[in-house]
Design brief:
The structure is a homodimer. Chain A is of the alpha/beta class. The first copy, chain A, has 14 helices and 19 strands. Chain A is globular. The interface between A and B is medium-sized, with 14 and 14 residues.
């Protein structure tokens, strides 16, 4: 039995706390913010997320996956909005496979409730980490209200304190610690589509809505109350950009030009645009994540990614599953367990970081491109005909727990096959013809 | 006239201090270490460096380039040492072009002396930076001896405090600050070849000596006292590695096997190997370097590189030259001058960072390869025939002040030409033949 301090009671900190406490360890989670269960909802920061298979598997370990699914809204595909207002639906998978729009706050509250029901787990809120002593697994924290400082000694610190982790900050000073924080040229701003006067959804609730506009895009995810949380991903600088749209007139003109179909649904557009913060998007890479058996980074603290594959939370929850397995394998040697965890996990989190950056281009640009749509159609035909041998990259990432790196490598190999099949004229409409079937079989056999 | 605080009295901090004080500003340099002019020499850290054209140009601005050259040892080429002890000389340039082996301490002392002769410049030693307030250009420093803390307010802070810069640490917390620290798998350890009993050099003094051994290498640079400072670049882990060589017997056996010719020249090899530190090698990239007109990173604080192109100090001194020009261009708008500096300089320091990493492979592996030697011969023939149109990458980096990025791009284009010329059988020995000259002319014309 170990004494474990976890920095951060966010999504990953709460879940890894549940896993460790269930193993019998004494867990103390320290959280910088106040208890969100006692606070009003703060607007303007991503309040819903797409939960998919890896995340559900992680939540299953805490036994709350079914509870969460009950309050989730399945999104079966992308609904594309053209400038002229046409909507086109692209299914994500087959057989009603879906990603799930869930409230970040809802999941976090469920996880904290679940954590605090365990007798050997406590959460202390309003505790800001001032200093970290890795060798003695000691945190110095300060209470935001009383300003009292406390030394928290433990056998081990888990750094689940997010992209701007204080634990990682300390590790960054260690010799041979590799680290990068890399921002993209786009920021984001949240906007909202409220429910209709009768309380109903103003757009199809079972889709992730996208307004792809090449250099930028707007997306919308449904909430249980009938609203949609929309996010504009938009350049910081240049024209148009957050920098160039200053006045209400400029903002109005821009939305009228680019997103005319959402304007009737966004009565508070101008206020939201003016008052909601413009936030940046960072990819964080680090290595090693473990310091002896004394400290371990997990979730965004180890590998923050951009949101365009909807995998940030899912990857963090998968960390918890994998760490749980490593600790089962080496229950008496945490140094070895941590090392195995980081070696197993690093290539996979590097892969999803890359895929997430690439998917921004796909979402904002390619999804509206006829060649891309043809490709998606061919992918679906391939999967239907060769379900065991062909699965789209999106499906492997979203609807399986195949390691991300394997999915990335398999996806690249499949791209070569798809390129070859797409070279067959009109193949998507004459799939079953004898000649095409012969050609497809030959390509699949690598001839 | 501005009040300027410079963090760091190292090579770049001292030189940029001279430049700024000469412009009439009031300069205060704060340095964490004690005054090296009052201390005994510390062993085991790179004590000589290769000074080349860019560095000399930077020093010329302080008027001390000729003084430094007087105490430098010109190295006209590489002297390769094979396992069997054969030595092969490869000239670096033409017409006695040379890089200069100089003492790091010697240059730093000369720069500090030069700086302190200026009435409007002071250096405070033993001052550790505790905190940085960018908006007010304020440093909080603590004296290492008295532990007294001082607030130093200024109009502007120059962060010349090296690869582990405290100023950059603070900037790293700014939104959209891109940063990476990336270590290579190799570390280094310094060894020494003392002078012969008669005080003479034991190896050719006018060469940079290399013992290339594919996965690792030993190099040696001459010192004025007749000794050579040698550096073993060697993997941290694996076999062989710093990790695998533990006992004196293992170290002896390894040197007998791989570097038999140096053993007679290194009487203190085993003690040096045991007692000198094993140090790591990092590439640091960051951006932006400027914070308004309040703070600017320069030298290693902005862009630390690995030492394999001998350009770390030279790039830092070139920063000083370029910054000086930018401040001349916008004397009344330092925000603009800083912005121009970082935009001009960033692609070039990124280029030399890449070239330095690539040159490790060249030095430790390719220099002993017959194909590489043939390539070098063709490069020299090309340069002799087309001096205005063809210059080797090494020469452009080392013997010119062409921007590093332009040198990198030109080098890549030239590689294509060289590949084409090397495809001509035995061209290097039948360069003047009519047929070959026709072929070469055709290739140079892009036909």
């Amino acid at each position: 039995m170990k004494n474990i301090t976890i920095a951060g009671a966010g999504l990953v900190g709460s879940l890894v706390g549940v896993y460790l406490a269930k193993k019998g360890h004494k867990v103390h989670i320290v959280e910088r913010r106040s208890d969100m269960r006692k606070e009003a909802i703060s607007a303007g920061r991503s309040i819903n997320l797409a939960l998919s298979d890896r995340g559900l598997k992680g939540l299953a370990g805490a036994g709350i996956d079914q509870d969460i699914l009950k309050v989730a809204i399945p999104m079966y595909g992308r609904m594309m909005h053209s400038i002229s207002g046409e909507q086109t639906f692209q299914p994500y998978g087959i057989d009603n496979q879906a990603i799930n729009s869930v409230s970040r706050r809802g999941i976090n509250v469920a996880l904290m409730d679940c954590a605090e029901r365990l007798p050997n787990l406590t959460i202390s809120f309003n505790q800001r980490v001032l200093d970290v002593e890795l060798d003695s697994a000691t945190l110095v924290v300060q209470d935001n209200e009383s300003h009292k400082r406390t030394f928290i000694e433990a056998d081990c610190i888990i750094g689940a304190d997010g992209a701007f982790s204080a634990i990682r900050d300390k590790m960054q000073k260690n010799d041979r610690f590799n680290y990068s924080q890399s921002y993209i040229e786009h920021g984001y701003k949240e906007l909202t589509i409220p429910p209709a006067p009768d309380g109903d959804f103003q757009l199809d609730k079972n889709a992730l809505h996208i307004w792809p506009r090449k250099q930028y895009m707007l997306i919308g995810l449904p909430n249980l109350d009938g609203s949609f949380t929309c996010t504009l991903f938009f350049p910081f600088d240049g024209n148009p950009s957050f920098e160039s749209l200053k006045t209400e007139a400029e903002i109005s003109a821009f939305f009228n030009e680019e997103f005319p179909d959402v304007i009737p649904f966004m009565p508070t557009l101008l206020q939201d645009f003016a008052h909601n913060p413009t936030s940046s998007l960072v990819t964080v890479r680090s290595f090693p994540w473990a310091y002896k058996d004394k400290a371990l980074l997990i979730g965004d603290a180890a590998h923050a990614i951009v949101p365009f594959f909807g995998q940030g939370m899912n990857a963090g929850f998968e960390d918890c599953t994998v760490l749980d397995e490593c600790l089962d394998r080496y229950p008496d040697n945490w140094e070895k367990a941590f090392k195995e965890f980081e070696i197993l996990r690093k290539p996979n989190t590097d892969a999803i970081a890359e895929l997430a950056l690439e998917n921004f281009i796909e979402m904002r640009d390619k999804v509206a491109d006829p060649v891309f749509l043809r490709r998606k159609k061919v992918e679906r035909l391939m999967h239907t005909q060769f379900p065991d041998r062909f699965n789209s990259l999106y499906s492997m990432v979203t609807f399986s727990d195949m390691p991300y790196h394997d999915a990335q490598v398999t996806g690249r190999k499949q791209d070569v096959l798809i390129d070859a099949i797409m070279a067959i004229d009109n193949v998507e409409n004459e799939w079953e013809s004898v000649g095409n079937q012969e050609r497809i079989t030959r390509i699949m056999a690598g001839k």
